[in-house]
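Lab notebook page, bench 4
Experiment: in silico fold of construct C2
Operator: M.H.
Input chain length: 131 residues
Purpose: comparison with the prior construct
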Amino acid sequence: MAESTTLTQKDRGEQTVPESTRGVFFTPRVDIYETENELTLYADVPGVGPKDVDLRYEGGELILHGRVQPRHPEAQFALQEYEEGDFYRAFSIHESIDASRIEAECKNGVLLVHLPKVEQARPKQITVRGQ
């Protein structure tokens, strides 16, 4: 007689990593640089249009999420290196960003995000007087 085992529901307290319901997330390559006035982010997102990108800034975190749509869903590829599916990145950004002035554009497979700093966070030149 075969041994019987009972499967129990996973204990919610044991879960340490969020589970994905949509499969694999791709991680786009990103460059971020800082000037006195803003942070600028460049993300490689080939095959993605502006409507495929969900970009949010909340509580000091910039979240980039989107989807690379299938180019040829019925094709039988001889070689396929171009990844399709969801992509995701999250960045902790200092609270010195003026959220009301963030701008983004997606052109030629590159997402460009401008994160302007609030006036109080910008460096100020102080004139030193002397005698």
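Observations: The domain at 26-70+83-119 is CATH 2.60.40.790 (Immunoglobulin-like). The beta strands are 25-26, 30-34, 38-44, 53-58, 61-68, 85-92, 103-107, 110-116.
Next step: discuss at group meeting.
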